[in-house]
Specification:
With 380 residues, the protein is α+β, with helices and mostly antiparallel strands. The protein folds into 3 domains: 96 residues, Acyl-CoA dehydrogenase/oxidase, N-terminal domain (Butyryl-Coa Dehydrogenase, subunit A, domain 1, Orthogonal Bundle), CATH 1.10.540.10; 91 residues, Butyryl-CoA Dehydrogenase, subunit A, domain 2 (Beta Barrel), CATH 2.40.110.10; 162 residues, Butyryl-CoA Dehydrogenase, subunit A, domain 3 (Up-down Bundle). It is built from 11 helices and 7 strands. It has a 7-stranded mixed beta sheet. Helix 9 runs antiparallel to helix 11.
């Protein structure tokens, strides 16, 4: 069960200064600074979804979200590495216990995975060989273990490699989320032993290490790790607009920004959007966790609600950050501004498959009894 003694928000608050001092370096390098990764691991923030029996905190989703938002308020890339490790840890609930033991033999392990564009795989004695390129392996330049999907005889599998087994492509040059090391990973006939393979087509059972209610939730709970990053970005932008409001006098104006009606309106609308999205996130995450604690099954619409919440948070956060940027005027166009970075980051996150505009249609399909066009929604 979860660790009641661990205050994840306090842990996140305690490393704010360290994260802030290295975020510009992450933007330049396309990956977090080693010191930022060390701060996250030292604070225990890469163990939030690790089972308690494996030395983790096993936090409920809403508690995870509060900590991730606090980190993203300062550094979105750091919160994204939390997401990568949490999600990969969650998926290890379906892995061979021998592989789980192999992964967590190291205490401060960093994990990543990507479900985007499966590689081609072929069966060989003792496992499979994989060939291809999989994009968006967030955190791959920090990870000790990297996962990706593969198709073997039309069977979807999730396979894992130790660091150094795959080629990391130099292709992460983006509008936002630049420090997340979300590069593509490539393989050419790389062997994967059988115990490092999860075969989704055979409906693998949860292993003995993942027996808490967190791990009884469906795959869609992974959306709970994306949403707080957008919320934190928006919150940081609102913080900066607060500071600007009484200190900035716009060009050709006799009064400060706080007296301009358009700025007031934009701020109010953005603040309402932030609070509404945050409330929906907490309500959905808590309801899902309570369902898991009760041992209830998740219907297709229960699963759809997770994706609906993620899509709403990601899309409304991006829209609200545009309002903040408009209110701030030219102060929001310079590098180093929290508003400028949040504007870029929320726009990029809003394109993530789990919360893109198309997921609203996927949710409607689930509610209307149609087959969802996004198969991950239906996964247990």
């Amino acid at each position: 069960m979860s660790d009641p003694q661990f205050d994840a928000v306090a842990a996140a608050t305690g490393i704010r200064d360290s994260l802030a001092s290295h975020r510009a370096e992450a933007e330049r390098q396309g990956r977090l600074a080693d010191a930022a990764v060390a701060a996250l691991t030292g604070a225990g923030l890469l163990k939030l979804w690790r089972p308690a029996g494996l030395g983790g905190h096993e936090l409920p989703p809403a508690a995870y979200g509060a900590a991730a938002e606090a980190v993203a308020r300062v550094d979105s890339a750091a919160a994204w590495l939390m997401m990568a490790t949490a999600n990969t840890t969650f998926d290890l609930r379906l892995a061979d216990p021998a592989f789980v033991e192999e992964v967590f033999a190291a205490d401060d392990v960093v994990l990543c995975e990507t479900f985007n564009r499966p590689m081609a795989g072929r069966a060989v004695p003792g496992g499979i060989e994989v060939t291809g390129t999989a994009p968006f392996a967030s955190g791959c330049r920090h990870a000790h273990w990297l996962g990706h999907t593969a198709l073997v005889d039309e069977r979807l599998m999730l396979v894992f490699h130790p660091a150094g087994a795959l080629v990391i492509e130099d292709d992460w040059h983006t509008l936002g989320m630049r420090g997340t090391a979300s590069n593509a990973i490539s393989a050419e006939g790389v062997f994967v032993p059988r115990h490092r393979i999860i075969d989704f087509t055979r409906r693998p059972a949860r292993n003995r290490y993942f027996d808490g209610p967190l791990f009884r939730m469906p795959e869609g709970i992974l959306t709970a790790t994306f949403a707080p990053v957008s919320l934190g970005c928006l919150a940081g932008a609102l913080d900066e607009l607060d500071e600007l409001a009484d200190s900035k006098t716009p060009f050709a104006s006799a009064t400060s920004l706080e007296h301009r009606q358009q700025a007031q309106s934009d701020y109010g609308r953005a603040l309402a959007a932030y609070r509404a999205a945050r409330a929906l996130y907490r309500e959905t995450a808590q309801a899902a966790f309570e369902r898991a604690c009760a041992g209830d099954d998740f219907s297709l619409t229960d699963k759809a609600d997770l994706f609906l919440t993620c899509a709403h948070v990601l899309q409304s956060s991006a829209a609200a950050t545009r309002l903040v940027a408009r209110a701030a005027g030219t102060s929001a166009i310079y590098q180093g501004s929290a508003i400028e970075r949040a504007r870029r980051d929320t726009e990029v996150i809003a394109h993530h498959a789990f919360g893109a505009h198309g997921r609203f249609a996927t949710v409607a399909q689930a509610y209307w009894g149609l087959e969802p066009d996004f198969p991950l929604l239906a996964m247990d």
